[in-house]
Write a structure and sequence with these properties.
Elements (H helix, E strand, L loop, with lengths): L16 H22 L1 E2 L10 E2 L4 E2 L6 E2 L4 E3 L4 E2 L4 E4 L13 E3 L4 E2 L4 E4 L3 E3 L4 E2 L4 E3 L1 E2 L15 E2 L2 E3 L4 E2 L4 E2 L4 E2 L4 E2 L4 E2 L2 E2 L3 E4 L4 E7 L3 E3 L16 H13 L4
Parallel strand pairs: 2-5, 3-6, 4-7, 5-8, 6-9, 7-10, 8-11, 9-12, 10-13, 11-16, 12-17, 13-18, 16-19, 17-20, 18-21, 19-22, 20-23
Antiparallel strand pairs: 1-3, 14-15, 23-24, 24-25
Length: about 250
């Protein structure tokens, strides 16, 4: 009678593991290829024909919903994350006239999953950094008629302007009619509407000013932490890494 064959796996090996690893490599390699060649740039705009797209600007793959691109102007050296929606007009195929509707300045960063919905003028100033899943819209639903479903009532539209140098935290909502000044911090999750002065911090829903800088008084209320030490001019990345290692070894003293 033949002896039973030992079918136990060898130590350190699991049955069927190499097909799984091979599939992982194929999928990850294909996804990396798609991310590289699916990105939109000024040199390779693909099917999208923006009114303007500056040098060095890149829309990561996969893109979110994009339409009305002839009325969208993107500045230079912008970074648009994955699944970011950029729309001009209520729906595709509309003639929106001679002027741009959505203007995004130089050096703007839009985080993953953010939406910028411009049914009327929306402007995002240069060097604004927008976190993930931020919603900026120039349109709001109406609910004047209590007998009609809200989604069927004609919306209200008001321009939105975000000044240069702002930081918009994760999950913030910028509503129609908002005008944000320069170098403003919008806290994560804030819901902003109305005028926001320069050099201020707003938080909450609805958002309110919780801190503001003026030339005469500085920051009020005062900042609770000291300002970071600026990087000395001319310092190389290698020197910065060596300095970081030294601070780590000495415990930051």
């Amino acid at each position: 009678m033949p002896k039973n064959r030992d079918t136990r796996p060898l130590p350190g090996r699991r049955p069927g593991r190499w097909p799984h690893r091979l599939a992982q490599r194929v999928v990850r390699g294909g996804w990396a290829w798609a991310q590289r060649f699916g990105a939109i740039t000024d040199e390779h705009p693909g099917r999208l024909r923006f009114g303007a797209i500056g040098t060095g600007t890149r829309l990561a793959f996969p893109q979110g919903t994009v339409f009305g691109e002839p009325w969208i102007q993107l500045g230079a050296h912008c970074v648009i994350g994955e699944q970011v929606t950029l729309t001009a007009g209520l729906m595709p195929g509309l003639d929106l006239g001679p002027d741009p509707i959505l203007r995004i300045g130089d050096g703007v960063v839009l985080g993953r999953g953010s939406h910028v919905v411009a049914d009327t003028a929306v402007t995002i100033g240069a060097q604004c950094y927008v976190g993930p899943y931020v919603y900026v819209t120039s349109t709001n639903h109406s609910y004047d008629d209590p007998a009609e479903p809200i989604g069927k009532q004609w919306p209200r539209m008001e321009p939105v302007e975000i000044g240069p140098g702002c930081w918009i935290g994760t999950g913030a909502v910028i509503l129609p009619g908002t005008r944000i000044g320069r170098n403003v911090v919008v806290a994560a999750g804030a819901v902003v509407r109305g005028e926001v002065p320069d050099h201020s911090v707003v938080a909450g829903a609805p958002a309110r000013v919780v801190r503001r800088w003026t030339p005469g008084e500085g920051w009020q209320p005062p900042l609770r932490t000291p300002a970071p030490v600026p990087i000395p001019e001319g310092m190389t990345p290698q020197q910065l890494m060596a300095l970081a290692e030294l601070e780590s070894d000495t415990g930051g003293t």
